[in-house]
């Protein structure tokens, strides 16, 4: 992944011509180990094919496919030439960005740069920049484009006064992700500006994440400060992004056309007047992009040139991106699409030129825009494979083997929740009829949700209340209504609007917004089912076993543990986050049971063993009885374990092991101690960061850490520094999207790039410690230098904030760290093995992968070997080792980990009593023998079978 950073920049370079500039760049790339000698030929050859000048004084020299093999590592180096270098055709370059990349990674860089390319005076500013920092700010800090689309417009709102209208505008901005929650209050304090014709303007620059403009109108005529109030613009202002729009608005007002805005009956009309989006009836064509490296600078340039030959507006968008179209004539806008091979593009042209322009552009794209293109594979090859028809539901009396994800035995009728395709007509009977049908469906779904609200716990009820709000959201219903007037059926209009809104949320690549997208689809589907008369299978009255393809964390969060006795999924693995949540809720679960399980008849009796990962289909009465007896015994065992939860975990032959708790914040810390924890072995601090709308400051963090230490009353606290990035970004941290987030900038790699955040967190921790036992560890360490950089920061801060009982260590989650354990052990105070990630990286299986993660079993001998190496290395240096991944609470794994001489197990608080009891029942010498044998096995299944035999 190409990112821009200070150390890649060399300021004040001099080159007499382009050839010497290229030579300087090539030398730099070679010296930094990114490419081999000879890459210069590639840079020159590429320039000979076409200049890499981008505009705004920037060029992006890179190699050709022939020199790709000379690239050792993906990266960029930036050279500033204050005197300028002639790049041909009189184009002067002040900044050359040399790229070493094997494939199309530079598209991402282009996307980053296009923000800067939109700026008017950037070339001059780049020339004058006096430091690498300043230069970087110019490239990254250019204002973002103003958001203005249908979701930011809401007409005819039932508002009583100006304040209420302003509040509605602020809410639209907040929902679109433009502003934080404090924005609404700030807007109320801003001074309103009358624009004339009853239109008003309010703006604030604070709490703004992304510039955006909302427009709201009241249902009935209102007055404000003795003037009419027909409509209100609310601007979330950031830089000068709104300038162009403001000019258009002024023009509209000068021409006396204000009523076209406040009398508009649809958001599209407003957008048309303000030029935010193209009208729906403009002709369009779609085409698949086949260029091997996507729409990069060269083909984009060809396309823009071609489009400039037509006198009128032409837009382009990536159809599945949920983004509005951009002008085809703007090279920077084209690059900002980041379009890749295999994506579908839509070209939209104004009617007067559409017939001429669209066929020409379409043909040019099909022919590769000057590049050789290989045809794309036909669609069926790309489409997800349907469930093979030969699949059959498991027969009564059979057992299905899955992966035990949450221990416990459960039985009950199967409640199979599978999303089936619902067909619906695209065109409606009449607008009035479709409106009435939609109204009835919305009302019925609202009642359904109300019933769910009433019978659910508070946290779950809140989710359904949010769904009710979505049903009533005028931003959605306005849009749907507009489509109904164009003749669409209620179902088609509803689903199009829901899908567009959901994709828009997802496109922002933010975990919270992605959840909102899931909620939108959930609501969307309920309404569709109502409209089409499809009754979703009713939940059984008695506690049931939920059967689903996959259960996302948000699905689990809304489960009612009183009604769901157990969970079986077709896909997924034991360390998927949903399995972790199931365990926390104490619902027995088997995951990865295979797609055939979804074919079970609803109501089929199921018996599941969440420990062994077995599902029995319509089990014979005696088997059921045995299992239920076992469940009762387990209950008794757990009760006995519970009564001994404060006793230490010492084996029968006197070997002691500590049992600690995994927690996410300070809430419930007293309960954790009450559950028998001898300390906290993993405080996942990212949950604290996620609970705040912005990075919590030192004082806030210190208070939180203090609460945990207070609650522990002298017991040790092991804190993991912030572990975000990759697939779990923080909503307020813009982290570049990555192709392989699990292999990307996450954990310590990310915090080392944001030293201030890391320093603040460490400072808060050290300040909170007083003389209590504090252990700090860094996640995802894979290299010695990462550990040393992190440790150095702690040491520096320690000079100012002395802590009497501090240990500093790392998590072992990456195989390289386990393999490097002998060297690391000399420097760290302890290791804590994160088996969830260690298993994922050792077996090369994404821990949440829908079908493979079932095989990501931490008892795999390959993982056990790494644990063994880690423990030996640590003990050789007199250091201790904990295990804090989910494996530590797996009853079959406890004796193996004990036998591998692990010193501490850190588990979810619910499992503490059970794990302690398991240790107390074990013999250390037997466990050691078991562990040695386990290391010799050839699969996780074999290890599990071995454990059962012992
Ligand atoms: C692990 O990877 O095992 C771990 C404990 O960290 P997390 O599950 O939070 O990634
Ligand atoms: Mg981890």
UniProtKB/TrEMBL annotation:
<dbReference type="GO" id="GO:0008965">
    <property type="term" value="F:phosphoenolpyruvate-protein phosphotransferase activity"/>
</dbReference>
<dbReference type="Pfam" id="PF00381">
    <property type="entry name" value="PTS-HPr"/>
</dbReference>
<dbReference type="GO" id="GO:0005737">
    <property type="term" value="C:cytoplasm"/>
</dbReference>
<dbReference type="InterPro" id="IPR000032">
    <property type="entry name" value="HPr-like"/>
</dbReference>
<keyword id="KW-0813">Transport</keyword>
<dbReference type="InterPro" id="IPR023151">
    <property type="entry name" value="PEP_util_CS"/>
</dbReference>
<keyword id="KW-0597">Phosphoprotein</keyword>
<dbReference type="Pfam" id="PF00391">
    <property type="entry name" value="PEP-utilizers"/>
</dbReference>
<feature type="domain" description="HPr">
    <location>
        <begin position="282"/>
        <end position="372"/>
    </location>
</feature>
<dbReference type="InterPro" id="IPR050499">
    <property type="entry name" value="PEP-utilizing_PTS_enzyme"/>
</dbReference>
<dbReference type="Pfam" id="PF05524">
    <property type="entry name" value="PEP-utilisers_N"/>
</dbReference>
<dbReference type="InterPro" id="IPR036637">
    <property type="entry name" value="Phosphohistidine_dom_sf"/>
</dbReference>
<feature type="coiled-coil region">
    <location>
        <begin position="435"/>
        <end position="462"/>
    </location>
</feature>
<keyword id="KW-0175">Coiled coil</keyword>
<dbReference type="InterPro" id="IPR002178">
    <property type="entry name" value="PTS_EIIA_type-2_dom"/>
</dbReference>
<keyword id="KW-0762">Sugar transport</keyword>
<keyword id="KW-0808">Transferase</keyword>
<dbReference type="InterPro" id="IPR016152">
    <property type="entry name" value="PTrfase/Anion_transptr"/>
</dbReference>
<keyword id="KW-0963">Cytoplasm</keyword>
<dbReference type="Pfam" id="PF00359">
    <property type="entry name" value="PTS_EIIA_2"/>
</dbReference>
<protein>
    <recommendedName>
        <fullName>phosphoenolpyruvate--protein phosphotransferase</fullName>
        <ecNumber>2.7.3.9</ecNumber>
    </recommendedName>
</protein>
<dbReference type="Pfam" id="PF02896">
    <property type="entry name" value="PEP-utilizers_C"/>
</dbReference>
<dbReference type="GO" id="GO:0009401">
    <property type="term" value="P:phosphoenolpyruvate-dependent sugar phosphotransferase system"/>
</dbReference>
<dbReference type="InterPro" id="IPR015813">
    <property type="entry name" value="Pyrv/PenolPyrv_kinase-like_dom"/>
</dbReference>
<keyword id="KW-0479">Metal-binding</keyword>
<dbReference type="InterPro" id="IPR035895">
    <property type="entry name" value="HPr-like_sf"/>
</dbReference>
<dbReference type="InterPro" id="IPR000121">
    <property type="entry name" value="PEP_util_C"/>
</dbReference>
<dbReference type="InterPro" id="IPR040442">
    <property type="entry name" value="Pyrv_kinase-like_dom_sf"/>
</dbReference>
<dbReference type="GO" id="GO:0046872">
    <property type="term" value="F:metal ion binding"/>
</dbReference>
<keyword id="KW-0418">Kinase</keyword>
<keyword id="KW-0598">Phosphotransferase system</keyword>
<dbReference type="InterPro" id="IPR018274">
    <property type="entry name" value="PEP_util_AS"/>
</dbReference>
<dbReference type="GO" id="GO:0016301">
    <property type="term" value="F:kinase activity"/>
</dbReference>
<feature type="domain" description="PTS EIIA type-2">
    <location>
        <begin position="2"/>
        <end position="142"/>
    </location>
</feature>
<dbReference type="InterPro" id="IPR008279">
    <property type="entry name" value="PEP-util_enz_mobile_dom"/>
</dbReference>
<dbReference type="InterPro" id="IPR008731">
    <property type="entry name" value="PTS_EIN"/>
</dbReference>
<dbReference type="InterPro" id="IPR006318">
    <property type="entry name" value="PTS_EI-like"/>
</dbReference>
<dbReference type="InterPro" id="IPR036618">
    <property type="entry name" value="PtsI_HPr-bd_sf"/>
</dbReference>
<comment type="similarity">
    <text>Belongs to the PEP-utilizing enzyme family.</text>
</comment>
<keyword id="KW-0460">Magnesium</keyword>
